[in-house]
Amino acid sequence: MSIYPAFNTIIAAFQSNACLAGVLGLSGRREIITAVCGFHLLVIIGLAIVGLVFGCACIERRCRRERALAAERPHMSSEEFLDLVGLGSRYDELCLGVRKGLAEDGKIPVEVVYPDEKMEFFEGLTGLGIDTVGVVMVLEDELGVSISDAVAEKIPFPLGRKLATTSVADTIRGMIECEQFMALLGINEPSEEGD
Questions:
Q1: DSSP helix/strand/coil, 28
Q2: At what angle do helices 168-176 and 78-85 cross, to 10 degrees?
Q3: Alpha helices of the chain — where are they, by DSSP H?
Q4: How far is CA 101 from CA 4, 56, 173, in A?
Q5: Domain extents for the chain?
Q6: Angle of helix 30-71 relative to helix 4-26, nearest 10 degrees?
Q7: CA 157, CA 101: separation in Å to the nearest integer?
Q8: Burial class of residue 2 in the structure, from the number of CB atoms within 10 Å of its CB (0-12 exposed, 13-18 middle, 19+ buried)
Q9: What rounded mean pLDDT belongs to the chain?
Q10: Given this model, what pLDDT does residue 195 score?
Q11: Count of C-beta atoms within a 10 Å radius of residue 13
Q12: Which of 67, 61, 87, 43 has its CA nearest to residue 194?
């Protein structure tokens, strides 16, 4: 069902009311002109509210459909996820924490978050963008640390056009390059084992 016919009807009503206001203006009836203009203002406000409600409902319906499709994808174990990220065992908790945070933000099972998935995918699950604060809060819980706002702001989450080209694994690698974040986790230098 299209909403455009309703908009066309309202625009026609505006045009006829404007003509009426013009005719009444020529005859000197100011109180009627004021009433017609007030009616226009109420209609515009009403249209804005209807548009917002309709837009939000459409976005939510699309997101539910995307989440349902994502939940049906083949599941990937944590071990397979970590092998594909390929960062070594010292970053396992960080990798799994980011995976869980993205899954919770997108309201999908953690097993369907793949390391090669583009971050753009997660933005489409919410309709509002990735909740980086929510992901950081999950990381705090998973890693058992308190991440200050100053450090959280330096964690490089991809934004804008980078969402289409940055994968989950790339995002995790970017976090590892953030020295303050790694110092908070107690991972400052590479281990001697080559991990």
A1: coil
A2: 70
A3: 4-26, 30-71, 78-85, 92-106, 119-126, 132-143, 149-154, 162-165, 168-176, 179-185
A4: 39, 24, 16
A5: 4-71, 78-185
A6: 170
A7: 13
A8: exposed
A9: 76
A10: 46
A11: 13
A12: 87
* CA atoms of 107 and 64, how far apart (whole Å): 9
Q: What sign results for the dihedral spanned by CA atoms 84, 87, 93, 95?
A: negative
The CA distances from residue 125 to 78, 107, 116, 130, in Å, are: 21, 8, 17, 9
What percentage of the chain has pLDDT greater than the value 70?
71
Question: DSSP class of residue 177?
Answer: T
Sign of the torsion formed by the C-alpha atoms of 37, 42, 44 and 45: positive
Closest CA to 195 of 78, 92, 76, 77: 92
One-letter amino acid at 16 equals S
pTM to 2 decimal places: 0.65
Residue at token pair 């625009």:
11
108 within 8 A of 71, measured Cβ to Cβ: yes
Helices 92-106 and 119-126 pack at an angle, to 10 degrees, of: 30
Both structure tokens of 114: 């793949």
* Separation between Cα atoms, residue 171 and residue 132, nearest integer Å: 12
